[in-house]
C-alpha cells in the first residue's frame, strides 16, 4: 500500500497541497506500523515482506526528499547524501548476496534512527509550509541531524557488512 501511496504523496507535495500530503504520509506511516505489528504478532513474516518493506520506505522517503528539493525546501546536497547512502547499501547488499552469501535484510539501529529522522524532517517541512513558517531554524537543525545520521548509518553499514564479508572470505580460504 505504501508503494501505491508514493505517487499521490509526491503529487500533493508538488502541487503544494501540504495538508493532503500530510494525511497521505500519515496513512503510509500508520500502514507501515500496522503491517509491522501484524507481521510480528501473527508471525506473518516472509522473505518477500522483508524485501518489500524497506523498498517501500525508501521509495516514499526518497520521493519526498526529491520533491521537497525540487520545491527548494530541502538542499540538493542532502538529497544526494541520502541517495548515495541508499545506493551504497543496496549495491553492497547485492554484492554481498552474489559474492559472499545470503544477505539478510535486518536493519541496523543506526538505520532505524536515520529513517525516523528523515520522516521527522519531511513532516517538519510539511508542517512548516502549512502552518508554522517561523520554524526555519528547526528545519535547519533537522537537515543537519539527518546529514549526520546518513553519514553515521552509511558508515556503520560499510563497517558491519564489510567486516562480515571479510570474515566470510577468510573462512573460505
Automatic annotation (TrEMBL):
Pathway: Phospholipid metabolism; phosphatidylglycerol biosynthesis; phosphatidylglycerol from CDP-diacylglycerol: step 1/2
Entry EC number(s): 2.7.8.5
UniProt-listed InterPro entries: CDP-alcohol_PTase-I (IPR050324), CDP-OH_P_trans (IPR000462), CDP-OH_PTrfase_TM_dom (IPR043130), Phosphatidylglycerol_P_synth (IPR004570)
Cited Pfam families: CDP-OH_P_transf
Keywords: Lipid biosynthesis, Lipid metabolism, Membrane, Phospholipid biosynthesis, Phospholipid metabolism, Transferase, Transmembrane, Transmembrane helix
GO biological process: glycerophospholipid biosynthetic process
Topology within the bilayer: Multi-pass membrane protein
Localisation: Membrane
Gene Ontology CC annotations of this record: membrane
Membrane-spanning parts: 18-38, 59-77, 113-132, 138-160
Molecular function GO terms recorded: CDP-diacylglycerol-glycerol-3-phosphate 3-phosphatidyltransferase activity
Keyword set includes Lipid biosynthesis: yes
Catalyzed reaction equations: a CDP-1,2-diacyl-sn-glycerol + sn-glycerol 3-phosphate = a 1,2-diacyl-sn-glycero-3-phospho-(1'-sn-glycero-3'-phosphate) + CMP + H(+)
Recorded family membership: Belongs to the CDP-alcohol phosphatidyltransferase class-I family.
Name assigned to this protein: CDP-diacylglycerol--glycerol-3-phosphate 3-phosphatidyltransferase
Organism: Methylophaga thiooxydans DMS010
Amino acid at each position: 500500500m505504501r508503494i501505491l501511496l508514493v505517487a499521490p504523496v509526491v503529487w500533493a507535495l508538488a502541487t503544494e497541497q501540504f495538508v493532503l500530503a500530510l494525511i497521505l504520509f500519515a496513512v503510509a506511516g500508520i500502514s507501515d506500523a500496522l503491517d509491522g505489528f501484524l507481521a510480528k504478532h501473527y508471525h506473518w513474516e516472509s522473505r518477500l515482506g522483508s524485501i518489500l518493506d524497506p523498498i517501500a520506505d525508501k521509495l516514499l522517503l526518497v520521493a519526498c526528499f526529491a520533491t521537497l528539493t525540487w520545491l527548494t525546501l530541502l538542499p540538493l546536497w542532502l538529497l544526494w547524501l541520502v541517495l548515495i547512502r541508499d545506493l551504497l547499501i543496496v549495491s553492497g547488499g547485492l554484492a554481498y548476496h552474489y559474492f559472499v552469501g545470503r544477505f539478510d535484510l535486518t536493519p541496523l539501529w543506526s538505520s532505524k534512527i536515520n529513517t525516523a529522522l528523515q520522516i521527522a524532517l519531511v513532516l517538519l517541512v510539511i508542517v512548516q509550509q502549512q502552518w508554522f513558517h517561523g520554524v526555519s531554524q528547526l528545519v535547519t537543525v533537522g537537515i543537519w541531524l539527518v546529514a549526520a545520521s546518513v553519514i553515521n548509518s552509511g558508515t556503520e553499514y560499510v563497517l558491519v557488512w564489510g567486516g562480515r564479508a571479510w570474515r566470510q572470505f577468510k573462512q573460505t580460504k
